[in-house]
Amino acid sequence: MGWRCIAVFGVRCKIRLVTEVRDADLVVSLRGLWAARHIPLGSIQSVETITFDPEGDFGGYGIRSTRQGKAYIAGGHRGVRLKLVNRATLVLGSQRPEDLTAILSNSARSRT
Fold it and tell me: What is the CA radius of gyration of the chain?
């Protein structure tokens, strides 16, 4: 009985990646799974729109750590790659990667 309840819950639970650009930071959270991560906008060195294979490049969906960096992916094949000043790389899956890239690029320019 226990496994059936978990399976039904897993099917009904939809994971959402929520990305918010605030005054001083970028907030990334996988709602339903993990606490939010706050990234200071001043720590973003570069931003680019990318296409990727979630399973081939990162081993699937969710929060993934690979040699390519950390990835937050809830679905799809498009997103944004951030290079941070501490040399870390972060990939964010997005349904609107061009918009996110433009907002983050403008935020970075206004801080310099």
Answer: 15
